Amino acid sequence: MFAVHLLASYLTKLKEDPIKKVDRFLYHMRLSDETLLEIMARFQAEMEKGLRKDTNPTAAVKMLPTFVRAIPDGSEHGEFLSLDLGGSKFRVSKVQVSEEGKHKVHMESQFYPVTGEITRGNGSQLFEYVADCLADFMEAKDLKQKELPLGFTFSFPYWQTKLDEGVLLSWTKKFKARGVQDTDVVSHLRRALQKHPDLHVDILALVSDTVGTMMTCAYDDPYCEVGVIIGTGSNACYMEDMSNIDLVEGDEGRMCINTEWGAFGDDGVLEDIRTEFDRELDLGSLHPGKQLFEKMISGLYLGELVRLILLKMTRAGLLFGGKASCALHTKDKIETRHVAAMEKYKEGLANTKEILTNLGLEPSEADCAAVQQVCTIVSFRSANLCAAALAAILTRLRENKKLVRLRTTVGVDGTLYKTHPQYPKRLHKVVRKLAPNCDVRFLLSESGSTKGAAMVTAVASRVQAQRKQIDEVLALFQLTRDNLVDVKNRMRAELEYGLKKETHPMATVKMLPTYVCGLPDGTEKGKFLALDLGGTNFRVLLVKFRKGRSSVRMYNKIFAIPLEIMQGTGEELFDHIVQCIADFLDYMGLKGAQLPLGFTFSFPCRQTSIDKGILVEWTKGFKATDCEGEDVVDLLREAIKRRNEFDLDIVALVNDTVGTMMTCAHEDPKCEIGLIAGSTERGVVRMAPELESPMPGPLMPVLLQLGDPQYEKMTSGMYLGEIVRQILIDLTKQGLLFRGHISECLRTRGIFETKFLSQIESDRLALLQVRAILQQLGLDSTCDDSIVVKEVCGAVSRRAAQLCGAGLAAIVQKRREDQGLKHLKITVGVDGTLYKLHPHFSQILQETVKELAPECDVTFMLSEDGSGKGAALITVVAQRFRQLQKEN
Ligand code: BG6
Ligand code: BG6
Ligand code: GLC
């Protein structure tokens, strides 16, 4: 559209007024209000595209999350180092933020030169140079002996997943150092700092200059929620609602988004407003095809745009009598500072003449006026474009807040904005025109990005200190290998202790004989009833065996045991159980049937025979009176008698561990151990007891009541949740969780059931889902809280699995030694909600056993049929044994 042949026709017309001449020549660079509104709308669409997960990969405007979640609140304090790289100057500073309340910042800075050799050389050299400058600064300021946190203002587009990491997406402006793109710049700097082992700096935050500017201004004006740079480059950031940021988990509060608006148009959406000068400038730039919006706006390019226009006009005979100088032909000979000088009110004309003369040109008065007009059009376009994008951001902020009018402050910095005489005024005016419903205050950043970067670092440093406190608490739950070996050895000693007659009464690991003296051999047949009480569910089952290992049929029904019955009288409890049996028999069409019954009763019992067991004490929330110290088989028989409706032959009393072992042994004869990791946890192992046994037979399963109170409380599902709750209370008291508020819910015992623990730790759940679970439990958590809760659960359940593994390792090793084997192959039958539902428990348990008992090849077999089937099997075996006794 600016084709040369058209120019000729202008020639004659343009002779008259130099201003009009330029206006006509640069017609395409003068943007109407409609065009600006159109650009504003396009930028609004771009922001949306960049924020959405599905469209972000193809979006030109990247809308980068910065992990800066709040503006300063005045509580920031401490001493910080700051690096500021990427603008026109490289600066190293020390920032002292005053103690709480005083709201004062003291800065000492030093500028260091950055040559083209460094910005376009090798990446590692660039960062080594930065580290050297820092070292020099610290030496000069006598800071070497101090341990200081550092904020790194690095003004390029990078992808952050946390505050102290950023993968460079691309270099912009004058930088193009090799080997940095697609890598983490913080790692580069850390590596470079390793060459200065005498420095103790901790890089805590990587910050864009826009963010630094916003934070600097927000320190003085809490309304500030936008940062704009109009300098060497151009860019903006603003506080976006988390719920709109697809790229970061969580929907609470806000996060600062670095728009990287310089890349607006890189996908072609601004082609209709770009001119041949913009295209020419882009082709000759360090990053062709990139930062097309920035190239129409920022300081690095405005002078060059003016030069290209002047050259073209001269060639067309519109300026300098058609005579260009060598300098006018030379790239970057006109700089933005020249443009600013030429546009000055009073001295502008004189400046123009001087600048042009210095370029080897011979300008007439009219030439000078024309050149001034070129500068005005170019810089005005810049302000207009900036205003359109900024108005889009402000409108978005207003809409996010659902306000009719928005009152807000924009923090601004950058040499073009600061040094160009008309720029700020023009920008402000156009923004107000394009966003009439926003009352905007523009605040010039007085201390660059440095002060703001220090604020971000101060917050990060506070978070780091809190992290340390959390780690200290969680460290209490970490077990070393030595700890675990020690637990195994102690368990090993306890096993011997519990089996020996003399030491048995004092043993903490009870080693209770179960009087189950045989394993299923596949010849079992008949119909049996089984009860299964003591796990998460109470079940009544009918088990039908036909000859052959796999031909088993089971029918079962789950019944609820209401809390008032669990904690009522023993009579009520056992009557309820019998009621459930009656219902079940009815349901199965077996009313009045006389069946043998196996009773899985998963509480600590002292058995004296297979069908006799004195309840030692209730656990797992049961509290029914008049049961402890009584034979539970008798209690059940009495209840059946009271009902006087059917008769049942109670053949065996079985613990769930034994039931599980028997269930698994029915399929795998190598199964000699039963383990429950459920709402409580016990283990059972088949081994030769040295206790006086009233029954013959070489082997008898011994119930290891692993319920040494300390051990069980560290390992079983029911207690894990309680431990988690206690830790959460502790962390909340320290102000590290739930904003320091201990809610009614957190005070409630038992809120963390095993299933919640398992859900929270699931790797498949996103943070938001974890948060939803916590909220379901009545814990009003932020996403950060949710991360901590998940970690706490992880630490507690890991320890449980490790301890359980250490105990099991002791048992398998004893089995191996007892049999005098070098190597033992053994199967453990396992059941329990913790083992089955928890995402990591079983794996950690298995790994621990492998590590601590390397001579044993342990197979874990999940009991699919619960303990009920095992109870029925024991009933068969016991009946067989009874028969044998009768015959003898
Ligand atoms: C400064 C910041 O104040 O503004 C710089 O501290 C930033 O880091 C700059 O890049 C932008 O301006 P310019 O003109 O120096 O690029
Ligand atoms: C089941 C058994 O499969 O596992 C129960 O049948 C047993 O009797 C239970 O107590 C253990 O798991 P939890 O987690 O339900 O206590
Ligand atoms: C460039 C950079 C951006 C920076 C801006 C201002 O656009 O890509 O990160 O904020 O310049 O310095």
From TrEMBL:
<keyword id="KW-0547">Nucleotide-binding</keyword>
<comment type="function">
    <text>Catalyzes the phosphorylation of hexose, such as D-glucose and D-fructose, to hexose 6-phosphate (D-glucose 6-phosphate and D-fructose 6-phosphate, respectively). Mediates the initial step of glycolysis by catalyzing phosphorylation of D-glucose to D-glucose 6-phosphate. Plays a key role in maintaining the integrity of the outer mitochondrial membrane by preventing the release of apoptogenic molecules from the intermembrane space and subsequent apoptosis.</text>
</comment>
<keyword id="KW-0808">Transferase</keyword>
<dbReference type="Pfam" id="PF03727">
    <property type="entry name" value="Hexokinase_2"/>
</dbReference>
<feature type="domain" description="Hexokinase N-terminal">
    <location>
        <begin position="470"/>
        <end position="665"/>
    </location>
</feature>
<keyword id="KW-0677">Repeat</keyword>
<keyword id="KW-0472">Membrane</keyword>
<comment type="similarity">
    <text>Belongs to the hexokinase family.</text>
</comment>
<keyword id="KW-0418">Kinase</keyword>
<keyword id="KW-0021">Allosteric enzyme</keyword>
<dbReference type="InterPro" id="IPR022673">
    <property type="entry name" value="Hexokinase_C"/>
</dbReference>
<keyword id="KW-0963">Cytoplasm</keyword>
<keyword id="KW-0496">Mitochondrion</keyword>
<dbReference type="InterPro" id="IPR019807">
    <property type="entry name" value="Hexokinase_BS"/>
</dbReference>
<feature type="domain" description="Hexokinase C-terminal">
    <location>
        <begin position="709"/>
        <end position="876"/>
    </location>
</feature>
<comment type="pathway">
    <text>Carbohydrate degradation; glycolysis; D-glyceraldehyde 3-phosphate and glycerone phosphate from D-glucose: step 1/4.</text>
</comment>
<dbReference type="Pfam" id="PF00349">
    <property type="entry name" value="Hexokinase_1"/>
</dbReference>
<keyword id="KW-0324">Glycolysis</keyword>
<feature type="domain" description="Hexokinase N-terminal">
    <location>
        <begin position="22"/>
        <end position="219"/>
    </location>
</feature>
<keyword id="KW-0007">Acetylation</keyword>
<keyword id="KW-1000">Mitochondrion outer membrane</keyword>
<protein>
    <recommendedName>
        <fullName>Hexokinase-2</fullName>
        <ecNumber>2.7.1.1</ecNumber>
    </recommendedName>
</protein>
<comment type="subunit">
    <text>Monomer. Interacts with TIGAR; the interaction increases hexokinase activity in a hypoxia- and HIF1A-dependent manner.</text>
</comment>
<keyword id="KW-0067">ATP-binding</keyword>
<dbReference type="InterPro" id="IPR022672">
    <property type="entry name" value="Hexokinase_N"/>
</dbReference>
<dbReference type="InterPro" id="IPR001312">
    <property type="entry name" value="Hexokinase"/>
</dbReference>
<feature type="domain" description="Hexokinase C-terminal">
    <location>
        <begin position="226"/>
        <end position="459"/>
    </location>
</feature>
<comment type="pathway">
    <text>Carbohydrate metabolism; hexose metabolism.</text>
</comment>
<dbReference type="InterPro" id="IPR043129">
    <property type="entry name" value="ATPase_NBD"/>
</dbReference>
